Amino acid sequence: MNSNNPFSNYRLLLYYKGDISALTLFVQHSNGSVCFPQPLPALSSALEPEEYTDSKVSVHPSALIQNINQQLQLDNDLLHAEAEFSVQIDTPNGIITVYMARFMLLDPPHKLLQSRACQLRTLPELRGRPPAEMELLRRAYSTVMES
User: Which of 23, 35, 112, 122 could form a disulfide with 18 if both were Cys (CB 3.0 to 4.6 A apart)?
Assistant: First the structure.
C-alpha cells in the first residue's frame, strides 16, 4: 500500500452514455487500461459482493473525480459519480475499490479525450483486457443498462 498516495487503493472507470441512443462508451487510457488514474496491478481479480471487506476508512468517489479532473485537466462539472457502482478488486497489494463516473455531456467527448491520450471504446473494442478489467467492465455495463 502506498501511504503517500491516498488514491492508491482506489480506481475510477470513466464512461459516456447517450441519453437517446443508450450508446455506452468506456474511456481507455493510452496505456490500455480502463482504470484511472493507473491500471490495476498484475494478478488482480474481482471479488464477488459477498467477499467484500468493510473498510474503516474510505475515499468518497467525488474526491477521486476531483483528482482525475486535475490530472486530465477537465472541467469540474463534466464527470458525475455513479453512487450504485462499487467493486472490490483483490490485488497482491491488498483490496482496491473501483468506482465509476459518467461524462455528463450530450455528445461523446472524443476530441477532448484524444487530447488527453485517451479513447472512448465500446465494450467489444475492449475485449482482450486483463480478466479483472473485463469483469469490471461487465459489471459496469450491467449497472449502466439497469439505470
Answer: 23
**What pTM does this model have?**
0.92
The answer to whether residue 1 sits within a structural domain is no
Q: Which ranges of the chain have pLDDT less than 50?
A: 1-3
What's the pLDDT score for residue 6? 67
Cα gap 111→146, rounded to integer Å: 28
Q: What is the 3-state secondary structure (H, E, C) of 56-101?
A: CCCCCHHHHHHHHHHHHCCCCCCEEEEEEEEEEEEECCEEEEEEEE
Say how far apart CA 91 and CA 100 lie, in whole Å.
19
Q: Measured between alpha carbons, how far is 28 from 16 in angstroms, rounded to an integer? A: 12
What pLDDT was estimated at residue 4?
Answer: 59
Q: Which CATH number characterizes residue 14's domain?
A: 3.90.79
Question: Does residue 129 fall inside a structural domain?
Answer: yes
Q: How far is CA 81 from the centre of its chain?
A: 10
